[in-house]
Amino acid sequence: MCGICGVTYFDRERNVLEHLVKSMCDVIRHRGPDDEGWITKGNYGIGMRRLSIIDLFTGRQPISNEDDSIWIVFNGEIYNHVELRNKLIKKGHKFQTKCDTEVIVHAYEEYGEECPKKLNGMFGFAILDLKKQILFLARDRLGIKPLYYYHDSKKFAFGSELKSILQVPNIPREVDLRALDLFLTFEYIPSPYSIFQGIRKLPPGHSLTLKDGRINIREYWDLDFDEKDIPEGELCEQLLELFQDAVKIRLMSDVPLGAFLSGGIDSSAIVAMMSRVMDRPVKTFSIGFKEDTYNESHYAQQIANHFNTEHHVEIIEPNALELAEKLVGFLDEPFGDFSIFPTYLVSKMARKHVTVSLSGDGGDELFAGYDTYIANKAGRAYERLPRLLRNAMHPILSRIPPTEKKKGLINRAKRFVEGMELPADLEHTRWMIFLQEGEKIKLYSDDLQDTLNGSDSFEFIRNYFNRVNTSDPLNRQLYVDIKSYLVDNILVKVDRMSMATSLETRVPFLDHRFVEFSATIPSRLKLQGKNTKYLFKKAMADVLPPQILNRSKEGFSIPIKNWLKEDLKPLMLEVLDQQKIKREGFFNTNYVEQLKKEHLSGKENHSHRLWSMMVFGIWQDLYLRGASINEKAIQTSSEFVEV
Prior knowledge:
About 45% of the residues lie in helices and about 15% in strands. The chain is an alpha+beta fold. Among the domains are: about 1-220, Aminohydrolase, N-terminal nucleophile (Ntn) domain (Glutamine Phosphoribosylpyrophosphate, subunit 1, domain 1, 4-Layer Sandwich), CATH 3.60.20.10; about 230-360 and about 480-550, 3-Layer(aba) Sandwich (Rossmann fold), CATH 3.40.50.620. The strands form four sheets. It has a six-stranded antiparallel beta sheet. Strands 4-5-6-7-11-12 form a six-stranded antiparallel beta sheet, covered by helices on one side. A five-stranded parallel beta sheet has the order 15-14-13-16-17, with helices on both faces. The longest helix is centred in the C-terminal third of the chain and has 27 residues, at about 475-500. The chain is globular.
């Protein structure tokens, strides 16, 4: 696991200097505290920071082929590297190390730009082909590992994080207002956008070739839905066998390894599979909060007892004020998901004991685990109610103050009715939207509204609905989530927060073989009535305790709405100061003041809107207020490496 970066000048007489590549590496030290490496070859420079996991002593990067004509920097893990290595050796390739990185070099020699199709793993890599004068980048199929790039008429730069690219001189730091609108709407910025104009994310399952100053991006993988008419029992057997193998191959490591354990079905299933194949107790990690409705640690303890794991749990009272600014610094661009806090904290705790941890992310998108899928079904029934009754629901519910609970009947009802006011063709994503068009008119400044005039915040969602190769309503929704929410919210959160503590996370659910298998399962076996993950639960019936299989999904969250009234109130008042908001010119100061007052009084829960604006404000202070971001980012990174 590493962080990678590089820069290329199109003027072949202009050499890349070593100190530039080194500075690009320094700001991502948290991604790889064990080692660093870089090379400069005329107008090319590539570098990396390494977190040593496999082949601890001979896996230093950059790594080359036999004649040093091809070089690679690589972030990730290739789980089929031994099998692929043996095939390449039979074809005459010679290896100098035992690491998975070198396998990619020889796979590129053998298969060219088709080589990503041969890899089973998570990856973002860059290959410098000196003979062809090509720079070849690729990102894994599901987007587990990040990869950003910048391209203009004079240069090309790339990095695992935006920080690296910003070290290159003359990279403009201008906010992409379309990306800002998307962030405030969804709480994340979807690919290929980034918060900066000119910097883009390489989409999952895509590769990029740079030659003669021009880039060519192509898709090498997509998810096809092809439902199979196979008996449930046989499907369960196949699912269990493939899932166990996906977990097993992710146990390869030369350093200590464990698993996050929330007590939910997905993380519990991973621990169950680990217990089957490991010859020692599984190390498991969970955290809880003192607020009862947010504390799920007792469920995790049940699984730990059931599988006799070496369990580590902490009931925490985090310093929210101190954490907020530091975690935003690790994110590079605005990101509004509250669960960055618990994800960071459990990663920090796990890093005290292990270097690698398995995570249960991805199961909800494969097997319809979110409440939003149920809400969409309920929405069809709601639309059959008399219009007069439906029109009265929102005014009635708006008069009822939100409760302090994590969810609760009142909070769910308010959120449901709010989502039903959005266009029906958005289907379940209506409940994944946090700022509606009417609210934008009140919140956005006149200048911002003028700039965004005519833009459609939902265009990328509709594009995914239009391109999926199935007409099945549920599978269409799953495809949209896999291509959007999973890659640009869930996986961003897990990667950045775990890497902030120099912990590698692996996600067995996103083994591409398992993902492709899930696409063959009929949707009726994923969601039955209100029973989510139907087939997955059935496959795990003899593996997990009934109380875990039958519990409702809660989600990995924090009491942010309460924190904004208490711990985070001083920060909110500072970042969303009336004069500061007016000076920046993005938002309407009067409406921001209204949101703050209504939230602090308990009249409304505006935590999503307020926190997103706070994140954007903190991000501006870090990244747009002069060159101090570089020193601040390095300081933050080094502070969290020692855990």
